[in-house]
Amino acid sequence: MSPRLPGFGVLAALVLLTVSACGQGAAGQARIPATEKVATGGSAAVTAPPAAPDPCALLGPGDRSSAGLNVLGVPKEINGARACDWTVPGTFGVTITVDERNGLADLEVARKTATKTKVGDRDALKVSDKKAADGTCAVLLGMGEKASVQIDVSNTNFTDTPLACERAMTVAGLAEPKLP
After folding, report:
1. Are 174 and 66 in contact (CB under 8 A)?
2. Are 38 and 46 in contact (CB under 8 A)?
3. Is the pLDDT of residue 2 over 60?
4. What are phi and psi of 149, to 5 degrees?
């Protein structure tokens, strides 16, 4: 069975119902290194893949301000993956999901709704259903072969899909430098 992108309707309901706090990283966090050295019993070191980033730490205070988010994130779990929700009451919500099992190529996305793009030097997909015009948009970032980061935006009034995509691209641009 192929992994599926969480339904925008379910996401919108989750985003609209949550406002709380989660631990936030400092603004201007350094890029997470691509690998970490792990000490072994002998003198040699083994290179291990880095730990996946905390989704709530991907947007520091300055990032949240740049994205128009004046609230703290709420940690969540979506389909077994760690996520963080930010909801600006009466305006819009953002969810960042770090999926450590599915790379960009593994995600099942309807071709008619996906557009290939780049965020920084990273391959990405922008996903929105222009015909539905439901005020939702997602940016999916590749994070190696078997991991991805999904940024979902839902406008509270479920209109203005182009604005939702603009917001999703802004958040993706802020989070991307912090990804391994």
Report:
1. yes
2. yes
3. no
4. -125, 130
Average pLDDT, the chain: 78
Q: What is the secondary structure of 15-40 as a DSSP string?
A: HHH-------PPTTPPPPPS-EEEE-
Examine the pLDDT at 111 and tell me if it is beyond 70.
yes
The structural domains of the chain, with segments of one domain joined by +, span 8-27+36-178
Q: How many whole angstroms from its chain centre is CA 104?
A: 12
* Unique residue bearing structure tokens 């190529």: 105
pLDDT band at 97 (very low <50, low <70, confident <90, very high): very high
For residue 97, list its beta bridge partners: 83, 150
Q: Pairing relation of β-strands 81-88 and 122-127?
A: unpaired
pLDDT in tens, 134-172: 999 999 999 988 999 999 999 999 999 999 999 999 999
> Nearest Cα to 107, choosing from 130, 135, 138, 136?
138
Question: What tokens does 77 get?
Answer: 């779990």
Chain centroid to CA 68: 16
- In the chain, % of residues over pLDDT 70: 72
